[in-house]
């Protein structure tokens, strides 16, 4: 991959779980959360933001454009018709069903309300296939002891009709899966299943399974990933050769003390639909999780994200498969 560093986000720490997309040629990054005062192992508190930042050209300067309706992060975001669509997400106390569009035009930030999801969801995955916006999995509440396998679709050309529910994802419910839009289908990879121990402690089971959803034929299971992938950048970049999975948390370092955690997987995988095969095709220059991927001009952009547990990054990277 060809990597290019863009100007850093205008925040010293950076954010994980932001919304990101494009509007009238500008790159927008909105919301997310970080630890602004202390690291979590030092007793720091996670804080959600409502800031909306914009970058009008790759060599430009980030500007603060406005505010979200409230602090929000860990939702699904896609670009559609010069707007950044933001779906669901959370703050420090609850999860949300809200859906809205951010539009940056003529120096002003406008927020347009869309029909809400049938249920509140955070940590779901989703993407847009043509004019259909898909959302899969997630959690309904911060204290959920299980994840959802429900799937929803909003047809954007007639959004007033609201969301429809699709057949559920065939595998276990999951959070932090990776979605992709490719060849007219929705693709879902990995994520983490949640389960509770007898004492109420919620644990994660790292997943390797993968699925395709085609509107005419429904769900189909694919070849498993070579290794689990949780919270990899999403929606995954694509090319004529296939779908690229950009690292993620493979669970190999789960349980290590946060202050000594070396970071997440740098393995670059490509899924090739024609042969239903995964190939290891290189290593990432940087590894980030809980961060959206935006197709901007002729590149895929990763703005911010989590560099290791409890540590965000303000760096912005553009890649070309």
Question: Which key terms come to mind for this protein?
Answer:
4-stranded antiparallel sheet; mainly beta; about 45% strand; 30 strands; about 0% helix; Neuraminidase; about 325 residues; Kelch_1
| Helix count from the secondary structure assignment | 0
Morphology: globular
Quick check: average pLDDT? 96
**Tally of individual domains:** 1
Q: Which parts are unreliable, with pLDDT below 50 for 5 consecutive residues or more?
A: none
Please trace the helix and strand order, writing H or E for each element: EEEEEEEEEEEEEEEEEEEEEEEEEEEEEE
Strand order of the largest sheet: 1-30-27-26
Q: Spell out the CATH superfamily.
A: Kelch-type beta propeller
Q: Structural class, judged by helices and strands?
A: mainly beta
Helix content: under 10%
Instruction: Report the end-to-end length measured between terminal Cα atoms.
Output: 5 Å
The CATH topology corresponds to Neuraminidase
DSSP, total strands: 30
Largest sheet: 4 strands, antiparallel
Note the beta-strand portion.
Answer: 35-45%
